[in-house]
């Protein structure tokens, strides 16, 4: 490092300049969890410029950026590389005297942590360094790209500093340099913000109180920031809070009126009269506050069941609303202020008028996260939330908020086993049991465990199990054991230790992992234990089982002959895991479709359907099936072969049995034609699929959808919305069955081309990733004969099993993504709906010549 700082030291006389000496600090104390620092220093030398510095190889790699960083991805800033600076320079503010190198005032305009994408040293040496910033003013993804210009001999290599498109980007929307000119350390400003050389008597930069935020009109609707599930914190500095076991609630205060909303935007103010009154008493200006509603048990621990009871009994006085963030406070936007400042301001407001119904969520204090995590888990709590120090508030799932969930472990009696599936040796899963209480003779079924076995354990344990086989079940109530066909019962003599995520309502283990056999425990001792989570970090999964899921949560596969009945259809391989992220089994997907049949069947009946089949689940091979092709799918209707001459017959799903039958044959997604079977040559809808560049922030999709709706409104065409379940949105325009396929496709293409011509920087009418870069493709190609679109309420064959969901226009601004609803949470939405989002949908509209003229196009007919 000394050699790297030689140029820095040679340029400065440290007896005159207050800058830190190059050999003053060789290394800063570091922990493995520390992230490298970055700093941007605003420097009023002969010309005002910004010095951009990244900690790398023990020094601050430095670039002079004449025009300063820009949050606009379309703007490229020249960055001239200068000499490395010592790490101690990151906190330097002050006046460099006249006659010294770089004479003038310096303030710390921004600082924080940075994280490279890939190998930082390799990227730096190759001249293409990609990274993320987490500062007070700059955040998100960036890159430095060497251009090859500059004077090599003088080491003045030229680079470009570029902002990548993400939620932190601001395309042409304001200038962060003008909006936030102050130091993030002292609040100081440079005099007049001009590029002037300072006199020798020039004092240090004058100080002022840093501006905390800017006055705004708070939004009508607001989406919360969500945490990302992790097994341990990424590098960086984190602040920890308790992970509450309750309901996430957002409070909107406008002109003194308090409204309380769920994270999905449902107004629950009537359920929280005590909390509303307490918030009113705070006398806050217009605000959005973020928190969680819980009920505490006698030990002061959150109790979710007690919370539900409080709602049923209308006892809001039993509920505590813990507030932990303030994205908008007293009429000002605090989202881009550091986490600590937002929380400090929130705590100060709550202390003005303390109330039992509304409290502040305290920061957990300990040496590191392991101490906090162990303490929380030992208290039988759900886990902890970590929030990156100095991070901003963003209305999406963010890596700046993380969650660490506790898992449970205890001993169980081994009751039996299932045959192995596929190439697995030994057995598939173990059936678990225990006594309800000490001294009880009855053994109760407690679920299954199918993971955590080594090959040696499978072989050794299977030998022992076969020696203990018996015909009669040791379970007190064997009829309560699901999937009994193919189970081999054993004498209840073995005890094993299992780790698991939680107990289900039926007291079955969920997401269980085998740890070991326990020879030191006797079966008669094994009962339901107090919740005793394991210390340390494991690999928790964060997908709640769907309400209609079966009671068994076996993560392996049962005997190939085993099956379960759903809607009168025998589901083979019912325990086959279709999606590792959610843990959903094949039989659960069949039950899920059965449960929502009333919603999806109107979208399927009468239309040709194409099936996306994934027999081995989301991670396996997937293929489309558009025709019967001689395959017998239970209850699926074969359509008239004349509807699609030259092919096998088209298919229709016109009953719940047929819907479940499709799942039985490995189908996950359902796609329908834009016409019905009785008038197949006359489509009854236009489908416009907004397909974005995956790098675009979600707000771009919201804006694009809004713009497209405005154009359709101007054409006097009613339109309806649904999420795609993927990355984009689907806009549906219902039609009277009047025009043919060619006309409908041409009209859809005209809309796409019109939007592209009007806003070429945002839209493209040409398909393909190359044409979509930084843009949204308005896909009109779904409107030709034989094309299909994923049906409303269909599951998507993607990790997490998202669903394509109809929404009201008023819900658009609240959406956090096109995959917001999944098989795990859609039914909750459906139960809370007061009306069908597509209520009033009808096929009466025709394409008129005036519409073609407005689009600057001609009708093919």
TrEMBL record:
GO-annotated biological processes: DNA recombination; DNA repair
Catalytic function, reaction form: ATP + (deoxyribonucleotide)n-3'-hydroxyl + 5'-phospho-(deoxyribonucleotide)m = (deoxyribonucleotide)n+m + AMP + diphosphate
Pfam family membership, one: DNA_ligase_A_C
Chain residue ranges for the region called Disordered: 1-30, 188-217, 530-561
Cofactor: Mn(2+)
GO MF annotation terms: ATP binding; DNA binding; DNA ligase (ATP) activity; DNA-directed DNA polymerase activity; exonuclease activity; metal ion binding
Residue ranges annotated for the ATP-dependent DNA ligase family profile domain, each copy included: 312-405
Stored PROSITE patterns: DNA_LIGASE_A3
PANTHER family linked: BIFUNCTIONAL NON-HOMOLOGOUS END JOINING PROTEIN LIGD (PTHR42705)
Name this protein carries in UniProt: DNA ligase (ATP)
Organism the protein comes from: Kineobactrum salinum
Gene name of the encoded protein: ligD
């Amino acid at each position: 490092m000394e050699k790297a700082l030689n140029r820095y030291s040679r340029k400065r006389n440290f007896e005159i300049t207050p800058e830190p000496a190059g050999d003053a600090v060789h290394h800063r104390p570091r922990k493995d969890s520390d992230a490298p620092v970055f700093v941007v220093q605003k420097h009023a030398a002969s010309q005002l410029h910004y010095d951009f510095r990244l900690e790398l190889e023990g020094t601050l790699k430095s670039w002079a950026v004449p025009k300063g960083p820009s949050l606009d991805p379309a703007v490229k800033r020249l960055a001239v590389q200068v000499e490395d600076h010592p790490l101690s320079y990151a906190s330097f503010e002050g006046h460099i005297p006249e006659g010294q190198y770089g004479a003038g005032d310096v303030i710390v305009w921004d600082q924080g942590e940075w994280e490279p994408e890939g190998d930082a040293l390799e990227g730096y040496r190759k001249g293409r360094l990609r990274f993320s910033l987490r500062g007070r003013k700059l955040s998100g993804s960036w890159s430095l790209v060497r251009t090859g210009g500059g004077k090599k001999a003088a080491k003045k290599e030229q680079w470009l500093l570029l902002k990548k498109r993400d939620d932190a980007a601001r395309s042409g929307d304001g200038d962060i340099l003008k909006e936030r000119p102050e130091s993030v350390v002292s609040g100081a400003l440079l005099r007049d913000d001009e590029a002037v050389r300072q006199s020798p008597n020039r004092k240090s930069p004058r100080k002022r109180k840093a501006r905390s935020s800017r006055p705004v009109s708070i939004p009508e609707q607001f989406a919360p920031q969500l945490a990302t599930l992790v097994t341990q914190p990424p590098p960086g500095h984190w602040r920890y809070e308790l992970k509450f076991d309750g309901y996430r609630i957002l409070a909107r205060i406008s002109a003194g009126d308090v409204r309380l909303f769920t994270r999905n935007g449902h107004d629950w103010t009537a359920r929280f009269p005590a909390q509303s009154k307490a918030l009113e008493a705070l006398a806050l200006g217009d605000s959005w506050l973020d928190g969680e509603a819980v009920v505490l048990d006698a030990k002061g621990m959150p109790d979710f069941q007690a919370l539900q009871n409080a709602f049923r009994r209308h006892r809001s006085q039993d509920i505590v609303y813990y507030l932990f963030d303030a994205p908008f406070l007293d009429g000002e936007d605090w989202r881009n202020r550091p986490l600590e400042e937002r929380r400090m301001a929130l705590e100060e407001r709550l202390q003005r008028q303390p109330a039992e119904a509304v409290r502040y969520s305290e920061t957990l204090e300990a040496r590191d996260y392991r101490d906090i995590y162990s303490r929380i888990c030992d208290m039988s709590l759900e886990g902890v939330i970590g929030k990156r120090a100095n991070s901003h508030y963003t209305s999406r799932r963010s890596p700046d908020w993380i969650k660490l969930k506790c898992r449970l472990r205890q001993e169980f009696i081994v009751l039996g086993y299932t045959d192995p599936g596929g190439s697995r040796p030994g057995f598939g899963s173990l059936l678990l049991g225990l006594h309800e209480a000490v001294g009880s003779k009855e053994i109760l079924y407690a679920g299954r465990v199918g993971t955590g076995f080594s090959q040696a354990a499978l072989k050794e344990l299977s030998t022992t199990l076969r020696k203990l086989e018996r015909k009669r079940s040791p379970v007190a109530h064997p009829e309560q054991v699901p999937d009994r066909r193919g189970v081999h019962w054993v004498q209840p003599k073995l005890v094993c230790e299992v780790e698991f995520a939680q107990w289900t309502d039926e007291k079955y283990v969920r997401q269980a992992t085998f740890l070991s056999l326990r020879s030191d425990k006797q079966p008669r001792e094994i009962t339901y234990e107090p919740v005793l989570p394991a210390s340390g970090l494991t690999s928790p999964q964060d997908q709640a089982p769907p309400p209609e899921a079966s009671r068994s949560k076996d993560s392996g596969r049962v005997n190939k002959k085993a099956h379960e009945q759903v809607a009168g259809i025998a589901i083979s391989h019912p325990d086959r895991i279709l999606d590792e992220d959610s843990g959903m089994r094949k039989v659960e997907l069949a039950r899920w479709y059965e449960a929502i049949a009333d919603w999806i069947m109107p979208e399927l009946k009468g239309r040709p359907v194409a099936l996306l089949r994934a027999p081995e689940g989301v991670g396996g091979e997937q293929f489309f099936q558009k025709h019967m092709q001689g395959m017998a799918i239970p209850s699926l209707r074969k359509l008239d072969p004349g509807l699609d001459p030259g092919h096998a017959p088209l298919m229709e799903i016109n009953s719940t049995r047929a819907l479940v039958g499709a799942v039985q044959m490995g189908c996950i997604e359902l796609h329908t034609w834009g016409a019905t079977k009785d008038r197949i040559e006359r489509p009854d809808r236009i489908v416009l699929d907004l397909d974005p560049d995956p790098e675009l922030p979600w707000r771009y999709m919201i804006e694009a959808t809004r713009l497209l709706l405005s154009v359709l409104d101007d054409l006097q065409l009613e339109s309806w919305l649904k999420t795609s379940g993927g990355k984009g949105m689907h806009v549906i325009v219902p039609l009277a069955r009047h025009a043919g396929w060619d006309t409908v496709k041409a009209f859809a293409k005209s809309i796409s081309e019109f939007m592209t011509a009007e806003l070429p920087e945002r839209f493209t009418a040409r398909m393909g990733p190359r044409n979509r870069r930084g843009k949204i493709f308005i896909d009109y190609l779904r409107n030709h004969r034989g094309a299909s679109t994923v049906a409303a309420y269909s599951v998507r064959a993607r990790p997490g099993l998202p669903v394509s969901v109809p929404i009201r226009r008023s819900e658009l601004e609240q959406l956090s993504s096109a995959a917001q609803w999944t098989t795990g949470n859609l039914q909750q939405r459906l139960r809370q709906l007061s009306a069908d989002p597509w209520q009033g949908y009808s096929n009466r509209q025709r394409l008129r010549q005036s519409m073609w003229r407005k689009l600057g196009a001609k009708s093919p007919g």
